[in-house]
Request: fold
Amino acid sequence: MKIQVYPPPFANLSVLDEDGMMVLPPGARLATVYRRLKIPLLLQPLVICHVNYQRVKLSTQLKDGDVISFILPLAGG
Amino acid sequence: MRGNFLKGYCGKILMVDLTNSTFDEISIPDTIYEHFLSGVGLGAYILYKYLPPGADPLGPDNILGFVSGLLTGTGSFMTGRWLAVTKSPLTGGFGDANCGGTFSPALKQSGYDGIFFKGQAATPKMLLIDNAGPQLRDAADLWGLDTVETEAAINQMITANKKLAIAAIGPAGEHQSLIAGISNDGGRMAARSGVGTVMGSKKLKAVVLAGSKMIRSHDSLAIKAISQDYAKKVKAANLPAMATGAMLPMMGRSMVATDKAIPIDGMLSTAIIKKWGTGFTNTMGITMGDTPVKNWKGSVADFPYRNYRHMNPDRIQKHETKKYHCYSCVIGCGGVCDISGISKGRFPHTHKPEYETVAAFGSLLLNQNRDSIFIINELLNRGGMDSISAGNTIAFAMECYEKGWLSQEVTGGLDLTWGNAPAIITLVEQMIAGVGFGAILQHGVKKASAILGIESAPLAIHAGGQEPGMHDPRLDPILGIHYCCDPTPGRHTIGAGSYYTYMRIWEDVSWAPKVKLGEDKNDEYEATNQVGLKSMINACIKQILDGSGGCFFALVSGLNHFKLFDYLNAATGWQKTANEYMTIGLRMQTLRQAFNIREGINPRDFKMNQRLGGHPPLTAGPLKGKHFNIDEMMSIHYQFMGWDKKTGIPTKTALSDLGFCDLEMEGVTHG
Amino acid sequence: MADKKKPVIDYESCMACGICAGDCPLSCIALRKTDIDRYQKAYPVLDEYYRCTGCTRCAKACPMEAIGMM
Reply:
C-alpha cells in the first residue's frame, strides 16, 4: 500500500519518492513510519504526527491512501 | 442590480468628497468583479479610474480607499481582512496596507465593498455610516488623541445599535510622518505604504461603521460545507502539551540543516500559530537565518542564545490574558497582553507584539530587553506608526552612529549604541511626536538617509522607499524578488519559496510546478525559469487572496485545505477554474503595475538594497556566503509576469491578453 | 420579547470565529468566554439576553451550525 508522508526536515528522506509517497506492507502501523523515517528521539517531543488530520496512537494500523503529516514551522509575521 | 446581492459582494462603493462634504454612491458593474474581484482589485480599479495621474500623494487629488474582501461576511473562514489603498507617499506608486479585526465585515454591513475619500477637509472630520447612511462629523476634539483614546472617545460620543467598528489615525498620521498607519480594534494596524499619512493629509481622523446590512451569497450551504471541512482540520491541529518555546531555536537549526526541499503540510503548521501566534519565529527565525540582525549585516553570532532567549514566545505569552482573533478566524494568532506592571501603570494592556515588531525592535537593533518591546509596541499602535519601518529606520541610525557619522549633538543627546533600550523608547516617542532627532527619522529610512547625506545610502535598507519585512531574502531569494518586483515593494507577505511549498497550489493550478522531495533549495539562488514561474504564481495568488479578504496564514495552511477557489465560486455563482482565477490574479497585479508606470515609477528603482542580496555576503551564521543576482531575479520575474524583461513595464500583448482593451481603461501604458 | 427563542451556543462545535458576534445587528453577542479551550480563545456569549430580538441571524450565519434557537 502507498501512503502520503509530510516528513520533518531531519528525517531519513530516502524512504520516500519525489512526491513524498511511502510504500508499506499491508498491515503496517504508524510506528513503522517513525522507524523508517528515523525520527531522532531528542526531537520527538516537538514532533507531532497526524494521520488524516487526526491524532492517533503509534500502534494505529494504516491503510492505503492515508495522509501522515508531521508538524513543521513556517515563516510569517 | 438585484443579482449583486446574491454574489457575496455589495456591487457599489461610496465616494466621499472631503473638500465639499458630499457623498457619491457608485454602482460597480459585475464585469469589474469578474475581472478584478473585490478588495485590492476593486481598489486598484477605482484608483486607476478616478485618481488624476501625477497627483500629489498628500494633496487633495489623492484617493484613499478602505476595501473589504469579496468573501468577507459570506460565512467563509479566514476572510475578515480589509485593505487601505492609496497612492503611496513613501514609494510614489500604488500603496496598500492589509489589516484584520472587525472592520472588514463592518464595511460590507454598511452596504459598500469599499469607501473612498478624495479631497481634503478644512478641519478634522470623521465619517460615520449607520443604517441611515453616511454623514461627516466634526472631529476637532479627537485631533491629537492616540488611536486607543480615539476609539474610546468615539464610543463615548456615538451610540448606535451595533458595536462600532472604528479605523483611526494617531498623532503620527496627523503630523504627516511618512510611515504612519491606520489602526482598528485598539491596535491592529494597516501600517504599510504610508496609508495613515494620506488619511492625515485629508484631515480624516476616523471612519466609524455601525451598519447591519445582510451579505448574501449564491450558495451559502456550499460555503458552510467548505468552512466545516477546514475547521475540522484546524481543530485537530494541536501541539503536544510538552512542546515549549525553548525547543524552537533547535527547530530553526534543523530547518536549515538540509538543502533539500521537503513537502510540507501547511495545515499542521497552524498548530504552531494557534499556540504562539507569529511569535513562534521570534527565536527560531534567528537560528535559521530568517530574522535580520544588526541592520541586516549581522547573524546569530551577534545575537546569540543569551540575547535571543528573552524573545522566547512562552515568556511573551506569560503576559497574555486572552487570545485575539479577526472576524471569521478559526486559528486565532493574536493576543491581548497585560502590561500594566511593565509600563508602570502607563498602559493597561497591549496587543501581543507580532513577530515583525519583536524582530524590528529586538535582533535588528541588538536589543534584548523584552519589556521595552512591549512598550514600544503599544507606543507605535497608539501613535499609529508602522513598526517594521520604524525599526528599520532606527537600525539605520544606529549603524550611522556606530560609524561615527552621527554625533550626540545631532541625536539630541541620545546614545544610539546598539541595544540601548531606553534610548530606543525615547526615539520612538520622538518619531511619533515628530520632535527632536525623531523629526529626522519619522519619515522612514529613505528620507532619513537623504537628510543625513549621500554616504549613508548603503546603510538605508529599503526597496523603492519601503522598508522590508523581517524576513531575509538571503535565506529565501524568491522573497527578495517580491521585495523588489511587487508594485508595493518591501513586502514579506507576497510570497517566498517556502510559502510556495506550503500552498501546494499545483493541486489546483495545472501549470504550477510541483515541489519535489529532495529538490536542491540552492537552485532558488539562480534566476531560472522555475524561480520566475514560482514567483509569478505567488504574486497572482496573493492578489486573489487580497481580493477576497483572505488571511495569509490560511493561504500558507495550504490551498488543499483552504479551498479559496471553491469559496469564490460558491459565493459568486461563477464557475471559474483555478486557472481562470490565476488569470484574474495576474490581471490585478498587472493593473497595480500599470498604475505605477502611469505615475512615472521606474520599476527598476524598486531594487532593494544590495545588502539583502548578499552583496557583500555575510561572514557568519547560517546565511554565511549566501548571495544572488538581484537584477537577474527581477528580470525573470518580469518576464513571467508578461512585463518587459528589461523595464518591468507590462507589454502590449500581455495587456491585450488580459482584456484591458475591452475594459475601456484608457491609457494603460505598455512597453 | 422575552418569550422569543434566543440563541444557544454549542461550545463543542463552536470554533470561536466571531461571525455571530460580528453579524448580530444589535451586538448582543460578545466574545469573552475564555475557558473553553487550552488557548484561552475568546468564545461567544449572549450578553444582552433581553435586547436580543431572536432574529436568528447569528444562527443562520454560523458556519459550524453551532447555534440553536431555544
